[in-house]
Amino acid sequence: RGGEAVARVVRSTFILQRLRQTFRKIKRRAVGEPQESTACLVGLAVALLDGEISAHSFTNERLRAPDVAAMLPKIRFRTDDTIPFDKITMHVIVNIRLTDGRELSRRVDKLLGWPGKAGNALTREQRHAKFYACTRGILDERRAQRLLGLVERIDTLPDVVEIMDIARCGHDQA
Asked: Strand 92-98 to strand 6-13: parallel, antiparallel, or no bridges (unpaired)?
């Protein structure tokens, strides 16, 4: 967490030439409205800075934050032709050089949260932590807990009225 100690980040992945050009454009201009094409670049910056990714990671306020702006020029994407372009055998490598000269490297073979054979399913605890991170500041703790409880047993509910009442985030709900 914190970008001051990071000198450079290199993410090795399969990446289409068009996306590579998009990332270069993003880094040359101030980060504006959230767009699908910015998610990978900004997502990596915010994950390094905050230690997590949630719905709040892509708000205009977070995207325009000074620490994110300072981190973006440190991030490089490198195409690695040896990394396959399929969900089952693809992987990602992130190398980080710290300002003190140390180098850290991590290879991820199964992306966390992806379903099926290609994925690495979240544990119940990870799903709950992600849910609460995404509802923080939107739902109070009691309503978030109630919503999660309802969603976890959605197949036994007669309808989804209460789920929708909570999810609408109206101020008139109890």
From this structure: antiparallel
Q: Is-contact 72 48, C-beta < 8 A?
A: no
Which one-letter DSSP state was computed for residue 33? S
Confirm if 48 and 3 have CB atoms less than 8 A apart.
Answer: yes
Give this prediction's pTM: 0.62
CA angle 74, 119, 20 (to 5 degrees): 30
Contact 26, 37 (CB under 8 A): yes
- pLDDT tens across 107-151, in order? 888 777 776 666 778 889 999 998 998 898 889 999 999 999 999
- Report the DSSP beta bridge partners of residue 111: 119
**Contacts with 159 (C-beta within 8 Å, 6 or more apart), sequence order:** none
68, 41 Cβ separation under 8 angstroms = no
Nearest to 40 by CA among 28, 29, 27: 27
